[in-house]
Amino acid sequence: MNGSRESVSSYFGCQVFSEAVMRERLPKNIFRALKDTIDDGKPLDPSIANVVANAMKDWAIEKGATHFCHWFQPMTEMTAEKHESFISPTSEGRTIMEFSGKELIQGEPDASSFPSGGLRSTFEARGYTAWDCTSPVFVKENGPTITLYIPSAFCSYNGQALDKKTPLLRSMDLLNKHAMRVLRALGNVTSKRVIPTLGAEQEYFLVDRSFVDKRLDLVLTGRTLFGAPPPKGQELEDHYYSAIHERVAAFMNELNMELWKLGVSARTQHNEVAPAQYELAPVFATVNVATDHNQLTMETMQKVALRHNFVCLLHEKPFAGVNGSGKHNNWSLSTDDGINLLDPGTTPHENEVFLIFLCAVIRAVDKYSKLLRSSVAVAGNDHRLGANEAPPAIISVFLGDQLTDILEQLAAGGAKTSKTNGKLKLGVSTLPPLPMDCTDRNRTSPFAFTGNKFEFRMVGSSQSPAGPTFILNTIVADVLSEIADELESNGDVNKKAQEILQKIAKEHMRIVFNGDNYSEEWVREAEKRGLPNIRNTVDSLNTMLDPDATAVFERHKVFCKEEWHARYEILMERYCKAINIEALTTLNMAKRLILPAAIKYSGIVANAANAVQSAGSYSDTLKKSLDQVCQLIDSLQQNIASLENATQKASSVEGVAKQGEIYRDLVISAMNAVRKDADKLEMLVDAEIWPLPTYAEMIFLR
Ligand code: ADP
Ligand code: MG
């Protein structure tokens, strides 16, 4: 399993129980039955489980595995696993290695310590994991132990979803159902399934571990809670796409190898805008597999970084003053026979199927923009959205010139032409003329059409892509179900399709915006158009409780009301806990590191002033420095006391909604006040005494 300089194809996916491995190791009829479930969504036949489990076990043991685990995605944005060995003692005091179909299909971890939002009390500990055969099983090394990983869904004793995979799978089924209805109504008789696809670009920071070890804030919260701005930031724009530093390249090389072995098709890598910031993008896959792969990517990044004495930071905003990190969810719909339903082709105005699916997405995003916004509402993202580095908190859709023009034509009665683009001539005889895309890119849009897919750019770097994806799947499916209802009713299909397109174009043009999303004018313009601008996590999560938000999930059985409301509880509680940990860490560092350093420094200056005086002289500078340091020490002390009060108040309040408001309104500003004094002190106090690595060190030294 060591793929140093071997050709990638010789080891790509070597740790995966892939289709090729299954075909080789499973009896033909069993392989077919399993493939029917994986490809066509047919129910899994439990009677084949024993044979499959046995083949998996033999394969895993050949790879050195001693353990297996159900690998699932509780509501923590991360994954969970409980390992069991294959060992089964015999009566003669020996052991054989066993793995039954039942163990493959179902696990029963004690679930009491996972967030459930009240769906399960701690004394009702039972939870179940269920094998998701649509995402491949794999083996992974954890130190010396090799374990067989079984991607699984996770639910309560009553079958209520406690994870991110269950609703994702439910939403895929739903989308398939209504997209197929639309396709059939429009005359497609060949496709059998519609599958949402996802390519999740992942941004991250790498910081030398020696610095991180000295920063409790990075260790506990993933972001710096203190730090004066460095003399240089990202203003020279000299990091974006620059040559990759050797130490970072070595990290990326090992990361790619690890991911490739796991079958994750890591493809692009580059330096991002902020110093010390990077990006990885895989080749897209079904949303289910892509989500599992993104979870593996985040985990592997952190693991491999440590081997290179880096720490990989996945927080949305590790450093104030430079860009934060996002996850760009590229999403599209494809059929089992290879049609990308969001591919406009060369004459999109004539491409009825494309226009129907495009308009379905546009209507869904406008109709449910608050819901979509709530899917990216996490504490870390509040530093990004609307901060002129990431899309604003206002949701709009970028379509580009060609499609906007077609939509305008549709609204006016019907689309007759598609704007085309010629060749790009570079004015150099030796350079070939390049074909021009029909639309430019727009980096500022939160939801941009990018040729044959949409790119949802608001997702936070630390988030599981599952949440935003099952919401997008569900709202698009909801609109497709309306469209299917109309198309299936009596009358001429093409006429009805044109009416639907015209209606959507007229009604939802307001969500289309091709200009600069970072500008102040857009904020004003969006308000005029009646588009919501929900600026923080608390306000956004509150919209989850709107009746129409709950109704869309209930209607399509992606969630029952209790499940959806439990998610609200969990997410709001997570917000409160995240801010609480930041506040306590701020207090800890301010009291134990920063205040003592400032006091020590004031003593040094005071001694120097005394010494100068005893020597019969006087220094105005010394006097002023001392005054300045002492004033800041007093102010810091007062702000520490205020933060202590605010934190206490927040934690003593009942109910997550109220608590969230106090954390947002009182605790965060109290934390900022402490930081302000501390950062001023950093610029005064002798660098030898300052207890924390600085911004310049952390983001520029590697
Ligand atoms: P850019 O920098 O232009 O956003 P990247 O190459 O960094 O481009 O990322 C684009 C992502 O979109 C990749 O992960 C790619 O696999 C993905 N992608 C391409 N086509 C589709 C599709 N049909 N469905 C989902 N994702 C797609
Ligand atoms: Mg990119």
Topology:
Blueprint: H1 8-11, H2 19-25, H3 28-40, H4 49-62, E1 67-72, E2 80-85, E3 87-89, E4 95-97, H5 101-105, E5 106-107, E6 127-131, E7 138-142, E8 145-156, H6 165-185, E9 194-208, H7 209-212, H8 216-221, H9 246-261, E10 266-271, E11 277-282, E12 285-286, H10 287-307, E13 310-313, E14 327-335, H11 352-367, H12 369-374, E15 397-398, H13 400-411, E16 423-424, E17 434-435, E18 447-449, E19 454-456, H14 466-488, H15 493-508, H16 520-529, H17 537-542, H18 547-555, H19 561-614, H20 620-652, H21 656-682, H22 695-700
Parallel strand pairs: 1-8, 15-18
Antiparallel strand pairs: 1-2, 3-4, 5-6, 6-8, 7-8, 9-11, 9-12, 9-13, 9-14, 10-11, 14-19, 16-17, 18-19
Structure, explained:
The protein is α+β, with helices and mostly antiparallel strands. The protein has four domains: 8-162, Ubiquitin-like (UB roll) (Roll), CATH 3.10.20; 164-196 and 331-421 and 433-559, no CATH class; 202-220 and 238-325, Creatine Kinase, Chain A, domain 2; 575-700, Up-down Bundle (Four Helix Bundle (Hemerythrin (Met), subunit A)). The chain has 22 helices and 19 strands. The strands form four sheets. Strands 9, 10, 11, 12, 13, 14, 15, 18 and 19 form a nine-stranded mixed β-sheet that branches. Strands 1, 2, 5, 6, 7 and 8 form a six-stranded mixed β-sheet that branches. The chain has a two-stranded antiparallel ribbon with strand order 3-4. A hairpin with a 5-residue loop joins strand 10 (266-271) and strand 11. The longest helix is centred in the last third of the chain and has 54 residues, at 561-614. The protein binds adenosine-5'-diphosphate (ADP) and magnesium ion (MG). Magnesium ion (MG) binds next to loops.
